[in-house]
Each structure stands twice: as C-alpha cells, then as structure tokens.
Design goal:
Layout: H1 2-21, E1 24-28, E2 33-42, E3 46-50, E4 56-60, E5 64-68, E6 81-92, E7 103-112, E8 117-127, E9 131-142, E10 149-161, E11 165-170, E12 191-214, E13 217-234, E14 238-255
C-alpha cells in the first residue's frame, strides 16, 4: 500500500512539473506561438522566454500580440523513432497472497511508427518469493499523436529466476487401512521439500496515458492485469507450477 501511495505521489509531482515547464504562452503578431517559462519582463520594452529546450528568447513589446497561461492548449507533438522507457510499480494481489505488492522495475527500448504503434524489448527485475529477471516483448498503440496520449499495451515474455528456493510441504499417506471411523488420514507430520525456481511465461495487457514534459521527455501511467506461471522443480522427479494473477500499476519516464 505504501509503495502504491509513493507511485501516485510521484506521478502527481511529475505532472505538476510538466505543467510548470510549459505554463506561459507568447502570441506574436506574425502568427507565431511560443511556449515556455517567462523569466524576465521589462514593461513597455521586452520579455524573456525560456523554452523547454532551454533556449532563451527576447521579444520586443511591439512584436507581441498577447501573453497567456494556457496549459490546456499545450499539445506537444511526439516524435516517431527510437525511445527508452523506464517503468516502476507494483503487482498488487489480494490479502491471501504471501507477497501482496511485489515491486517491479523494467527498462524498455522501443521504436515508434507513424501509425501510432510501437514495438520493443524490455528487461527488468521483480521480487516475489524469489527474484526474477523478466525479458519481454512490448507492443503499444497510441490513440493520439500529440498532447496527453492514451494507449493500450501488451507485454509478453519469460521470467528468468535469479536464485532462491521454494519450500513445499508434503504429507505422507500410510498404506490404506480401514479404520473404525472409515476416514483415511495422512500422517500429521509433513515433510518439507525445497524446490528450485525454474521461471515461467508471463502476459500483461494494460491501458495507460503518456503526458509530455517536452518533445524529448514524457511521463507515463498504466494499469493492467499480469498473468504468469512460475515453475519449480527438484531434479527431474518433482515439478510444481504456481500461478500469479496480479493487478499491475506502473509509472514511467520516457526519453527520446
């Protein structure tokens, strides 16, 4: 729960930062529109505007038509091509799970096409009973091409275990005997069997939104459903599969 609150707080802070970076709009008489942060105003003479690419522009008063603060009008076009996305979050489960909110961290290298689709490969780390290295293919489709862009995504791949064992309790059943109660009972003393993690397949559909800070930097938020099966084994004589079905909540930082 604490991790979820931290992620939401981080997303809110980044959103405020994005709005602050682009809150001022300068409309010039020649029809040009520039957005950024006004750093100096000399009434009747000029203003200085710092744009998101950190350039400082000086405009004489007679060339300015108006100045406004219109965050809702900011629609920064997003570039096509290569981008890098780092996502972190939790895989939330119900109270019956041993690990209620395992932490997940993933870095994705991807390519965005003009039609709004992206395709990439991601590698990360996740903490369940054992530590895993998920390797996934990542596919996304962006509904809009500028401003805040909703998207749908699908990740699929394999989780590679990085060590650790899982303790399974086995009960011994004595030879079949008829008892006066007609109840067949196992031994009351279970034996513990330590099995090693073998990894397993995963699938994670999600929906989300990407909000630009500038042309090269965006923040993302997504919610989805993680389905995965982890296999455990001991030599070749014992195998066990454990299914994990979780709600995935992630925030990310995208660089272009």
């Amino acid at each position: 729960m604490r991790i979820t609150i931290l992620l939401v707080t981080l997303l809110f802070s980044l959103t405020l930062f994005a709005q602050k970076r682009n809150r001022d709009v300068v409309y010039l008489k020649n029809g040009s529109i520039l957005r950024g942060t006004i750093v100096l105003v000399d009434p009747g003479h000029y203003i200085k505007l710092k744009t998101p690419d950190r350039n400082v522009w000086v405009f004489e008063q007679e060339k300015i038509d108006s100045i406004g603060m219109h965050p809702s009008k900011i629609h920064i076009p997003q570039k096509n091509g290569y981008f890098n996305l780092t996502e972190m979050g939790v895989l939330a489960g119900n109270s019956a799970n041993y690990k209620k909110n395992p932490f997940t961290l993933m870095n994705i290298n991807s390519w965005k096409f003009e039609n709004g689709f992206t395709a990439g490969i991601g590698v990360g780390v996740e903490f369940f009973n054992e530590t895993y290295l998920p390797v996934v293919a990542d596919f996304r489709y962006f509904i809009r091409k500028a401003g805040a862009m909703p998207f749908v995504s699908l990740q699929g791949g394999y989780s590679i275990p990085l060590g650790g064992t899982y303790t399974q309790q086995n009960y011994y059943y004595p030879p079949y005997m008829w008892a006066s109660s007609d109840i067949y009972r196992p031994s009351t003393q279970p034996t513990n069997v330590d099995v090693s993690a073998r990894g397993g397949w995963l699938l994670n559909p999600a929906i989300g939104i990407q909000a630009p800070i500038n042309e090269n930097l965006s923040i993302t938020f997504s919610a989805g459903y993680r389905m995965m099966r982890q296999r455990y084994g001991k030599d070749d004589a014992y195998k066990m599969d454990v299914d994990y079905n979780r709600l995935s909540l992630k925030v990310g930082l995208l660089l272009k």
